[in-house]
Design brief:
The chain is α/β, with parallel strands linked by helices and 241 residues long. The protein has 7 helices and 11 strands. Strands 7-1-2-3-4-5-6-9 form an 8-stranded mixed beta sheet. The protein has a 3-stranded mixed beta sheet with strand order 8-11-10, with no helix packed on it. Strand 5 and strand 6 form a beta hairpin. The radius of gyration is 24 Å and the shape is elongated. The C terminus is likely disordered. Bound molecules: 2-acetamido-2-deoxy-beta-D-glucopyranose (NAG). Keywords: Membrane, Transmembrane, Transmembrane helix.
Length: 241
């Protein structure tokens, strides 16, 4: 029965008896090989980034935005990595002057970093790199604490990320990914702007400030009103959200 179902075994044993050992080895090796190739293909074609694929702990909580308005936020931490993805994607944040946002906390490198992506088309909304005072331990303790409850966080913007400074060049990106390989997938298709070293925001008519909610802080993001042109068909219009 087994032989009929498995084409490899069927092929190897179809003439029965004679010298089965070599054929058996071939059967075992090719079965493993097929399995290996198959799972590699699955991995390659799985459109989800690595941090969404494996097992991860989920955390969900509410955040009060004043006037009894409550939005839902969530985070997940892929098992075996010092990495947390936080999603503030409730569309009700828009009514309170916030933008929807996903932030990626990577604690695996020399210094913890956060990559902030404001919701919008990839080619228009950069990956903003900043630092954090959280550690993996404090972030996880915080998540366990707020899971299923209403998080009490101050809503005063504590930080400004300047999204108008020049994006990193290829070399800078490679250097960043060398230390923090986990964020490569988060930044795919986006310009990467390292806001850690300031740069002095020149507020102008071409800029505007939007607010987003991170795990521990509220940040102002300075955006260019008219983002740089790209070759994409989407660059014909300006997407606000
Ligand atoms: C968070 O709370 C939800 C619902 O109460 C629960 O299913 C989940 O396991 C909790 N997450 C963790 C990591 O404890």
């Amino acid at each position: 029965m087994m032989r009929k179902n498995n084409p490899v075994l069927h092929f190897c044993f179809r003439r029965g008896n004679s010298v089965p050992s070599l054929k058996l080895v071939f059967a075992v090796v090719s079965t493993f090989y097929i399995h290996f190739v198959y799972s590699a293909v699955i991995r390659e074609t799985d459109p989800r980034p690595w941090f969404e694929r494996g097992h991860h702990d989920q955390y969900t909580w509410s955040r009060e935005l004043g006037d009894d308005y409550v939005v839902t936020e969530r985070a997940y931490a892929p098992k075996g990595y010092s990495f947390v993805v936080m999603k503030s994607r409730d569309k009700d944040v828009l009514y309170h002057g916030y933008r929807r946002c996903t932030s990626y906390y990577d604690f695996s490198g020399k210094e913890p970093i956060v990559v902030v992506t404001v919701k919008g088309p990839k080619e228009k909304k950069p990956c903003l790199v900043t630092d954090t005072e959280l550690t993996y331990k404090t972030a996880m303790a915080d998540l366990v604490d707020r899971n299923g409850s209403t998080a009490a966080t101050s809503l005063k913007p504590l930080k400004t990320l300047d999204g108008t400074i020049a994006p990193m060049d290829l070399q800078g990106e490679q250097e960043l990914f060398k230390h923090n390989p986990g964020i490569r997938a988060a930044c795919r298709g986006r310009r990467i702007i390292d806001t850690r070293h300031g740069g002095g925001t020149a507020f102008s008519d071409n800029n505007r400030v939007v607010k987003v909610l991170l795990l521990d802080v509220v940040v102002n993001v300075v955006q260019q009103k008219v983002p740089p042109k790209t070759s994409s068909w989407r660059s014909s219009g300006f997407f606000d959200l």
